[in-house]
Amino acid sequence: MGIKNVALPEDLLAAVAEMARAAGKTPEEVIEEATRRYLAHERVDRLVRRNEQRARELGITEADVPRIVEEFRRGHRGR
After folding, report:
1. What is the domain range of residue 21?
2. Residue 4 lies in a domain
3. What is the pLDDT of residues 17-76, one digit of tens each?
């Protein structure tokens, strides 16, 4: 893995250091975990936005979702 330097504001760096001490981790481990969580969250948000857009294009409303899920489940039982 490549090592990169990242600049953080002093207050954020202090919060990371405090969190790391409390968790028994290094600041680098806390930053790595936070970055991984952030990236995962962003991937989910993008997926949701794409699917919301597609639902609008298809005219699907939130009220339609239970029926669509049930139809899907009926069509995939026993597979």
Report:
1. 10-75
2. no
3. 999 999 999 999 999 999 999 999 999 999 999 999 999 999 999 999 999 999 999 998
d(CA 72, CA 66) in angstroms, rounded, equals 10
Domain count, the chain: 1
* CA distance linking residue 62 with residue 11, whole number of Å: 42
Question: DSSP letter string over the chain?
Answer: ---------HHHHHHHHHHHHHHT--HHHHHHHHHHHHHHHHHHHHHHHHHHHHHHHHT--GGGHHHHHHHHHHHTTT-
* pLDDT score of 1: 67
